[in-house]
Design goal:
By secondary structure, the protein is mostly helical. It has 6 helices and no strands.
Length: about 120
């Protein structure tokens, strides 16, 4: 077993890497128990690198989609930037203004089965 080191920066990096894969019920003293990266051998460094690669999203790991299911969302960036010409804001109507006034006065939606303020 490796002795704990006083290097907080490397210990924090190791803790961040492991926290994504370890259960949340582990003791809170875990950062104090972990060794510094300088004290870790090559096998443990390779394991940490593999774990961090596993946590990455598929788009950051691969150049192209690896499965047919990934094909559908792989190129999700819009072809052209969004234009304000085709963006219409939300418009109110008489019904929505009535419903807002109803909620303000009675404290409950006009569409609910519960009674209002008494």
């Amino acid at each position: 077993m490796l002795a704990p080191s006083s290097s907080c920066a490397s210990r924090a990096r190791l803790t961040d890497c492991l926290s994504a894969f370890l259960p949340s019920f582990l003791p809170s003293c875990l950062p104090a128990c972990l060794p510094a990266l300088a004290d870790i051998d090559d096998t443990q460094k390779a394991l940490l690198e593999a774990l961090s690669d596993m946590a990455a999203s598929p788009k950051s790991k691969y150049k192209e989609a690896q499965t047919s299911a990934q094909d559908y969302g792989w190129v999700s960036d819009p072809l052209v930037p969004r234009s304000s010409q085709f963006h219409y804001g939300m418009k109110g109507s008489e019904v929505t203004s009535y419903a807002n006034a109803y909620i303000e006065s009675l404290g409950v939606s006009p569409f609910s089965n519960k009674g209002g303020k008494v």
